[in-house]
UniProtKB/TrEMBL annotation:
This is PAS domain S-box-containing protein. SUPFAM superfamilies: PYP-like sensor domain (PAS domain). Residues 99-144, 344-413 form the PAS domain. Pfam families: PAS (PF00989), PAS_8 (PF13188). The chain crosses the membrane at residues 32-53, 65-86. It comes from Pseudoxanthomonas taiwanensis J19. Keywords: Membrane, Transmembrane, Transmembrane helix.
Length: 422
């Protein structure tokens, strides 16, 4: 549980520490004052009695009174000093208890899951109700549970613990995957800070869990969609020159793991002209002369095979920094498919054109296309038939039967058609 009030109010550990310092100071002050009083009393009380008493009997009586006064003053002085000491200790204890209760209530009522951890044994000391609900275990089961039972990746756990031990007193933020009681994986953001040591002296750690499961699942779905679409993303900070590439971008450009290089070093045009055009457009985009980037860039892929990348980007201002952000999509197969479709369409058009049988395509009972053989049957050029109404090409008496056949209502029809000139 936290021992420091984030608003600046001292926590119970600070109150107790201050009380201990004041108690030690007062414990030293009491004997010093008593010693000083005793020395002064010894030095001056006898001289005062000798001046007041002239005979032995009177001196004896005064000596008795002096002893009684010494005891009384000592008792009064001890009472006053010890009363102040006890009053301060009790007041500090009350403040510590009130602060402890306040922090306990904050710990219990906090909506964020959190638990305290023993840094030596890596076991949970206590967990709040939100953590019990989030992880699915009752609080009594979480107490004493090893953190490694929740943290799926043992190597990440070891690295996080080593980092905390190497940098004590500093807050730490980590992303981790926890396993709930029902076996579900919960992706969490861990925010941790040191706590005062336990009564036994063991260091402790306060961990706050922020659920990032939905965000991580959305990120994975986005990554899957990007992989299916072969769509990568990139970002360039114009102030620092730093670049960031998503995993799909690395795959598309065969960029190995490690520090990200400059964008123009990753996207290298297949020829000098294409690369120079890319550099020029990026410079114009960075200066604001170009509103957005839209470029088909041929690049050399793995094995020297040429690939076609569709590069998009725009200039943005975020928190006073100018950045370039965009996407890269591999459209090699798409362009090849379009080219093949275009070739097949041309082949089909040529096949229809040389077909010896008449072929006509209608749209809303008007001629949309007619091949030369069909146009010859009507005694016209193919271009002359385009746009002609069906009613002008068929005998009026046979038009209903032809319409029924076109709608699939009749199995067959033999309408009489009109040639050019009637």
């Amino acid at each position: 549980m936290a021992q420091h009030d984030r608003s600046g109010v001292p926590g119970p550990a600070e109150d107790v520490a201050d009380a201990k310092v004041r108690a030690r100071a007062l414990a030293m002050r009491i004997p010093l004052l008593y010693l000083l009083f005793g020395i002064l009393w010894i030095l001056f009380s006898d001289r005062a009695l000798a001046l007041l008493a002239t005979d032995t009997a009177a001196l004896t009586r005064l000596q008795s009174w002096k002893g009684a006064i010494t005891v009384g003053i000592s008792a009064a002085l001890l009472y006053v000093l010890t009363y102040r000491l006890l009053h301060r200790l009790l007041r500090a204890a009350d403040r510590a208890r009130a602060s402890e209760n306040r922090h306990r209530e904050m710990f219990e009522a906090n909506p964020n899951p959190m638990f305290s951890c023993d840094m030596q044994s890596l076991e949970i000391v206590d967990a709040n109700p939100a953590a019990a609900d989030f992880l699915g275990w009752p609080r009594e089961h979480l107490r004493g549970m090893a953190v490694g039972r929740l943290w799926r990746d043992r190597e990440e756990l070891a690295a996080a613990v080593a980092e905390v031990r190497q940098n004590p007193g500093k807050p730490h933020v980590k992303l981790a995957s926890f396993t709930a009681r029902d076996g579900r994986v919960r992706h969490v953001e861990l925010r941790s800070t040191d706590l005062p040591p336990s009564p036994g002296g063991a260091p402790r750690w306060l961990v706050v869990l922020l659920d990032r499961t939905a965000e991580e699942q959305a990120r994975l779905r986005l990554l899957e969609a990007q992989q299916l679409a072969r769509l990568g993303s990139w970002e360039l900070d114009l102030a620092t020159g730093a670049t960031r590439f998503c995993p799909v971008m690395r795959q598309l450009t065969a960029h190995p793991p490690g520090p990200d290089r400059r964008l123009t070093e990753v996207l290298v045009g297949a020829d000098a002209a294409s690369h120079a055009r890319l550099e020029r457009m990026l410079e114009e985009l960075a200066s604001g002369a170009l509103p957005h980037l839209d470029l088909l860039l041929p690049v050399l892929g793995a094995g020297g095979q040429e690939r076609l990348l569709h590069l998009r980007g725009r200039r943005l201002e975020e928190q006073g920094h100018a950045i370039l952000r965009g996407t890269v999509q591999d459209v090699t197969e798409e362009q090849q498919t379009r080219r093949l479709l275009g070739e097949r369409e041309q082949q089909f058009r040529e096949l229809v054109r040389i077909l010896p049988d008449g072929l006509m395509i209608l749209r809303e009972e008007r001629v949309f296309y007619a091949n030369p053989a069909c146009a010859g049957l009507f005694g016209r050029a193919p271009e002359a038939l385009i746009g002609e109404p069906l009613a002008g090409l068929v005998e009026p008496a046979d038009l209903p039967a032809l319409r029924g056949w076109l709608r699939g209502e009749l199995a067959e029809a033999s309408p009489r058609m009109r040639r050019n000139g009637g």
